Amino acid sequence: MGINGFISDKYKMEYIPQRLLSLEACTLACHTILSGKDKSTPFELDLGSSKLQQPDLSIFIGLALDAGIVANRTLLNFMGLKLDNHDIVNSGYTLNISKFSQPLVPVTDACRILKSNHFSEYEIKDMWIEALTVASKSIAHFTETGATISVAKLGIACYATSKLVRHYFFDAMSENQPQSIITPEIEPKSDSLWGIVHNHYDRMC
To answer: 89 in a domain, yes or no?
Structure first.
């Protein structure tokens, strides 16, 4: 497991789609928590050589949240967006879309990615800042200060990053989109469960 040296087709066809899947699995997990079904739904996974059975979805939820937080940071950095002094700035300090002859996505344009879902650019920026802070201070390694993010904000942030990559990477290069696992009924929108919980009460990750 890992990533080999840079081969453009490998990134387009395998590495980036894998991380998109992690983002969207995280969004699914967050929606399940918000709907209140995470503790009442049995979990079964057939791995071929063995089966994993649990009384609820806790094991899947935990794995999906961690994977989503890490993938979110990886892909935002790939698009040229970096956390810097509690703000998001353009930076090409890691391997990024410029390797595919694409420009770094301007911060302002990136933060408008869920405008059609009625989330403002300021909301998306704040959610990304929180998600990136959690990735740096709570997931990549342990810190004494730690960091948290609400379930709704994390799910929306991961979905926004997925949309960002799909639009400014795959669409921009006229490449086929990896299949999305987000169905219309759970797509984050401000006038749905996501927005209601985000604006009132939410569980912390």
So the answer is: no
| Contacting residues for 47 by C-beta, under 8 A, at least 6 apart | none
pLDDT band of residue 201 (cuts 50, 70, 90) is low
Q: Which domain holds residue 183?
A: 8-82+100-199
Q: Domains in the chain: how many in total? A: 1
Q: Has residue 95 been placed in a domain?
A: no
CA dihedral 139, 128, 8, 66 (to 10 degrees): 30
| Predicted confidence (pLDDT) per residue in 15-43, tens digit | 999 999 999 999 999 999 998 887 888 87
Q: Is residue 69 part of a domain?
A: yes
Contact 165, 197 (CB under 8 A): no
Assigned token pair, 97: 């879309």
| pTM exceeding 0.70 | yes
Q: Is the pLDDT of residue 63 over 90?
A: yes
